[in-house]
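Batch manifest line 265
LIGAND: cytidine-5'-monophosphate
JOB: complex structure
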Amino acid sequence: MNNGLPRPVTAVVIVAAGSGERLGYGMPKARVPLGSDTILTHALRGVAAAGVARQICVALPPGDTALQELCGSFEAELRAGNPEAQIPLLTTVDGGATRAASVRSALGALLDGTEAVLVHDAARALAPEAVFHRVVDSLAAGAVAVIPAVPVVDTVKTVTRTSGDDTVIAPELVTGTAPREELRSVQTPQGFRLSTLLQAHQAAEGFGDKQAAAVTDDAMLVELLGVPVHAVHGSTQSLKITTPLDLIIAEGLLEGPLGIRWVEG
Ligand code: C5P
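JOB STATUS: finished
ARTIFACT:
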């Protein structure tokens, strides 16, 4: 599990302030039931089980007292279950209007002395512990930025909207085919030296609306600084619960015949 190198003092930021509109539950995604718990509880459980964090900071929808209470009860449960063990400090902050703003809000609440930060989507509630360890091991080995990634199974093409008479034929026109062997689907937790991630997010604060809307992960902001971003193996179990179909798959992983057996590292 551990490559034996001294690990940086690490905080895990869980971004859980999204609306979850695409899931269609009429409530923030973090509160949506998954098995007998919520999506956020599963995410918290995964982070706590990995045991890599001194602090867990969760960005929640502003004013969501139900989720604040859920975090409080989770911390109490952890403490009750491990009275002797050092458990991570669990803090919450109000998230922002975009994912990046939610990350920035959490970065502002990290304990002094934090050296590295893992940013994790609550929506990837079933990310296996092994992935957290691969990311932290890579940081311990000297990476400044590291992301979990899996090969792409589909052929991926670029397209543009058709215009003029072509709109009758089809709404989009293919402009190219990306070389699949070079492509990766990128997941969370994404790990960074804290100073580098702070610098990347400071730069992003000046973005206009369009540029800000195009920021879909933290690594892309670090790439803009020209800092090398490394990739370790992710897991298909770290699926991002976004649509009703994803929720069915996640339920299946937890409860179905594959559930117990299929824990991909
Ligand atoms: O909506 P998206 O796919 O970008 O969401 C990824 C993660 O970012 C989710 O866990 C969601 O809760 C979080 N998020 C957030 N604040 C936002 C938007 C999304 O914390 N304003």
